[in-house]
Amino acid sequence: MSDRLRPLAVxxxxxxxxxxxxxxxxxxxxxxxxxxxxxxxxxxxxxxxxAGMAALAVVVRTPGxxxxxxxxxxxxxxxxxxxxxxxxxxxxxxxxGRSVGFKGVHTVLALVSWAAAGWTIRSLxxxxxxxxxxxxx
Length: 137
What we know:
Layout: H1 8-21, H2 24-30, H3 35-61, H4 69-94, H5 100-134
């Protein structure tokens, strides 16, 4: 079973993404504000939930410890999207007048997300290098 969860970094990124974002939908719609603002807040939630499910799906459907090239590409897209989102969103959170606690929690979420995404990118890069060494063209 442990081979089914490899590469572990992709599994962690997918599970972490789902854990962080599935509960966010209720928060987006449970707060005050217009329907348009709630709908706008739902967009990244849906993107992240789909991305997390996609990352876990490629891991689960892979019979061994190595992802196919297209699955590695999908996992890299999820990782880079995660990095990009937090690079853009975190400064907005820091400077929008929210409480210190809110800023702190989101800073921790961003750091953990960046760590998981970076680990995924590094682990997939090392797999690509191993494959290139094992199968020279």
